[in-house]
Write a structure and sequence with these properties.
- The protein has 220 residues and is mainly beta.
- The N and C termini lie far apart (42 Å).
- The chain has four helices and 13 strands.
- The protein has a seven-stranded antiparallel beta sheet with strand order 10-9-13-7-8-12-11.
- The relative contact order is 0.17.
Length: 220
C-alpha cells in the first residue's frame, strides 16, 4: 500500500526484454534505499513493483505482460523521469489517500492551462472507469494522490500547486500525455457492495440506473 505522496523523482536507466515482458532498471535519485530489501515494493509512476535486485542508487524490477498491457511503463524510454514512493509502514503519515499501486487503466491529458500560480489539467479516463470518478473525490495519477475538482463524462479536472508541479512528473505533461490511473479503493468496493448477491453472478455487470431503480435506490 502507498499514500500517493511522491518521495522522489527517479529515471529509467535501462529496459531489458525478458521473454515477452521486461526487466526495468530504475535509478532512484534522492530516494533513500537504506531500508529497502529484496522483495520490497516500490511504486513507479503509480505501479507497484517488486525490487528483485538493488544496485548503486537504484533497483531492478520485473514487469509482467499484464502490467505492460494496462500501464504506461512499456512506453518509457531511457532517461524518462518517474515518480517514486516506497510502500507505507504503520508509522507513515497518510498525507494523500490509500493507494494500492494496482493501476486500473491508462488515461490521457486533454489540456493544460495556468491558473494564477497553479496549473489546471483536464484528463480523460477510459469510459469503464468514469463511474468511479467523483467531484472532490480522490484519484491517483501516475502515483500522485490528487483531488478531483470537477468531472464531466469521462473527463475530470485537477489543480496542481507549484510544489507538486516541481516535485513530480506532472510538470512534464502536455496534451496527449498518457498517464496511469488508479481510482479510489472505496469507490471500487462500494460498487461491489451495492450489487449485493448479484456480485456472484458472472454476468452481473455494473450498477445501472435500472439496477438502482429496481433495488429502491431511486425515487420515482
Amino acid at each position: 500500500m502507498f499514500t500517493g505522496i511522491i518521495q522522489a523523482l527517479g529515471e529509467l536507466r535501462e529496459s531489458q526484454p525478458r521473454g515477452g515482458d521486461l526487466r526495468l532498471h530504475i535509478g532512484t535519485g534522492a530516494l533513500d534505499l537504506a531500508d529497502v530489501a529484496l522483495g520490497d515494493s516500490i511504486a513507479v509512476n503509480g505501479v507497484c513493483l517488486t525490487a528483485v535486485a538493488l544496485t548503486d542508487g537504484g533497483f531492478r524490477a520485473d514487469v509482467s505482460r499484464e502490467t505492460l498491457d494496462n500501464t504506461t511503463l512499456g512506453g518509457l524510454g531511457q532517461g524518462s523521469r518517474v515518480n517514486l514512493e516506497k510502500a507505507l509502514t504503520p508509522t507513515t503519515r497518510l498525507g494523500g489517500h490509500l493507494v494500492s499501486g494496482h493501476v486500473d487503466g491508462v488515461g490521457e491529458v486533454l489540456a493544460v492551462r495556468e491558473a494564477a500560480r497553479s496549473w489546471q489539467y483536464r484528463v480523460r479516463v477510459p469510459d469503464a472507469l468514469a463511474r468511479y470518478v467523483a467531484r472532490k473525490g480522490s484519484i491517483c495519477v501516475d502515483g500522485v494522490s490528487l483531488t478531483v475538482n470537477d468531472v464531466a463524462g469521462s473527463a475530470f479536472e485537477i489543480n496542481i500547486v507549484p510544489h507538486t508541479f516541481e516535485a513530480t512528473t506532472i510538470g512534464d505533461y502536455r496534451a496527449g500525455t498518457r498517464v496511469n490511473i488508479e481510482v479510489d479503493l472505496v469507490a471500487r468496493y462500494l460498487e461491489r457492495l451495492v450489487l449485493g448477491e448479484r456480485a456472484a453472478e458472472t454476468d452481473a455487470g455494473g450498477i445501472t440506473e435500472a439496477f438502482l431503480a429496481d433495488n429502491g435506490f431511486l425515487r420515482s
